[in-house]
Write a structure and sequence with these properties.
This protein is of the alpha+beta class. It contains 10 helices and 9 strands.
């Protein structure tokens, strides 16, 4: 992890994007210019983000972040990037909850101006726990924090989930209902099977992922419970913090209606993903941070809902993450960054932990 190059995510030219952005901005706010346009080096592996300031006597926003659908020529992580859906989700959460969601200013559905649809929101200042190198490694602000400071951040972050799930009426988020038959959980898992089939279309399939799907059926909850608005990518790497307090909740492209435990399982597992990688390299990491038992207990205290079937939901999170990891690995192969091995399961960075979950030994 320390020496591998960051996977390629775009074929777009940053300067051309900046020029086209300025031209577009003038159509929305006559006389305005986009200045100090940058493409963060920490840009995600899916959609792209541009940061810029608006030069204008009375701008509706001074500092902006632009969320741009993935470059269609760059072997995208997901088959569809519905920017309208993300825009509506953020506006719904802002309207129905007290979560710190950045103000969304403009939506552009026409792919012409920048090559893909996008929306513009306010840029919130603060700091984000890093993914590369992960915050579980030494050398970053969260790792260097005290136990009390990390506990404060953990509690505040779990409170975000509790308030999101409790405060958004399902009727307000009906547009996030997934297609298909059955309850919300069945539809969610079915959508993941469709996504997996898309990832491996014409390529080697993953026996491990397919065993994980089978194991899900064996562990299927007797009563999944009602659906709520799920953030989808519920992890601290998608939160901006001022000190150790959340000031912006980001990245809503995976939002959907699903049981509460889908978000909780993702929060638990995405930390374990980084912690396991750190421990595998002989480093202690942050073993007492974002522990499953503490997350479950705090969430129950805040909502009155005791999380259930969490072995199922953490396995489901690890499975979902594995599909994304496999797609990213195949994208690296597409760009000649890696070679596809004989065993495609080894392309999944966390194949050992996923296998242990399938076998039922991970939480021993």
């Amino acid at each position: 992890m320390t020496t591998a190059p960051r996977p390629r995510t775009s074929t777009r030219d940053p300067q051309e994007l900046a020029d086209r952005l300025s031209a577009w901005l003038g159509t929305r706010l006559p006389g305005a210019k986009a200045v100090a346009v940058t493409v963060p080096t920490s840009n995600g592996l899916s959609s792209e983000t541009l940061l810029f300031d608006i030069e204008h006597p009375e701008p509706p926003l001074r500092s902006c972040a632009l969320r741009l659908a993935a470059d269609p020529s760059a072997y995208t992580v997901f088959p569809v990037y519905d920017m309208v859906r993300q825009y509506r989700t953020m506006r719904t959460v802002a309207r129905c909850t007290d979560l710190p969601v950045p103000k969304v200013q403009w939506l552009e559905e026409d792919p012409g101006p920048l090559g893909a649809p996008f929306f513009v929101m306010e840029r919130v200042r603060g700091r984000v726990p890093p993914d590369v190198m992960p915050y579980t490694y030494e050398g970053n602000w969260l790792h260097a924090a005290s136990d009390e400071e990390r506990e404060h951040l953990e509690a505040a972050t779990i409170a975000l989930l509790a308030r999101l799930h409790d405060q958004v009426p399902t009727s307000e988020a009906a547009f996030l209902e997934l297609p298909g038959e059955g309850d919300a959980l069945r539809r969610h898992v079915t959508a993941q099977r469709v996504y997996y089939d898309w990832v491996v279309d014409g390529l080697a399939r993953s026996p491990l992922i397919e065993r994980a799907f089978d194991r899900l059926e064996e562990l299927w909850p007797a009563g999944p419970g009602p659906a709520v608005l799920n953030w989808g990518d519920a992890r601290i790497g998608n939160v901006i913090y001022d000190g150790f307090d959340p000031v912006a909740v980001l990245d809503w492209e995976m939002a959907a209606l699903a049981p509460r435990e889908v978000d909780l399982g993702w929060t638990v597992y995405l930390h374990r993903f980084f912690q396991d990688l750190t421990a595998a390299l002989g480093e202690p990491g942050l073993p007492d941070f974002l522990r499953r038992d503490r997350i479950e207990a705090r969430y129950a205290e805040l909502t009155g809902h005791t999380p259930h079937d969490m072995d199922f939901f953490t396995l489901y999170a690890a499975l979902r993450h594995a599909i994304v990891m496999l797609r990213i690995a195949y994208r690296q192969a597409h760009f000649g960054e890696v070679a596809v091995p004989a065993d495609p399961d080894t392309l999944i960075l966390h194949h050992d932990s996923l296998r242990a979950m399938v076998q039922g030994s991970y939480w021993d």
